[in-house]
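Retry 2 of 3 after timeout on previous attempt. Resubmitting structure tokens to design endpoint.
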């Protein structure tokens, strides 16, 4: 009887361990995909009220896991069904590679533009304004006009 009890406990522990691994795999897969309900959140984290897409998509992931499909096969099936935009992280081939390259390219180009502009500003000769003799004729004329002016009260 004691042997039966120990075997039963061992079976429960291994089943719980397997279930925890399945839950972790489900979470990892669901975090790699976007829910198609327009919330732009991961499938695992979608909390949009009355989301009609999340339960079905999560059921698809679970069914494919139960069918023994690998992570890549599940992702490929979702891309085939919902398009490449269902993946949170873009692929590393074809046109998707631009999503990885463009932010860095824009950052480098912007930094080079700033360096170029600062270099041009620093190499321009400094021109001193107002260094010649001051012409006071215009100033004197304004003063005369102001003396003639009487405000209407």
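Retry 2 succeeded. Sequence:
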């Amino acid at each position: 009887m004691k042997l039966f009890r120990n075997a039963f406990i061992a079976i429960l522990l291994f089943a719980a361990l397997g279930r925890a691994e399945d839950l972790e795999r489900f979470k990892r897969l669901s975090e790699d995909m976007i829910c198609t309900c327009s919330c732009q959140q991961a499938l695992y984290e979608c909390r949009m009220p009355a989301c009609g897409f999340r339960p079905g998509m999560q059921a698809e992931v679970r069914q494919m896991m139960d069918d023994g499909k690998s992570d890549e096969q599940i992702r490929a099936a979702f891309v085939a069904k919902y398009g490449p935009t269902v993946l949170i992280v873009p692929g590393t081939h074809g046109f998707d590679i631009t999503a990885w390259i463009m932010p860095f390219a824009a950052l480098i180009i912007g930094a080079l533009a700033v360096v170029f502009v600062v270099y041009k500003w620093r190499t321009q000769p400094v021109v001193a304004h107002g260094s010649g003799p001051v012409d006071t004729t215009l100033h004197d004329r304004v003063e005369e006009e102001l003396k003639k002016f009487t405000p209407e009260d």
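Attempt log closed. The chain is about 60% helix and 0% strand.
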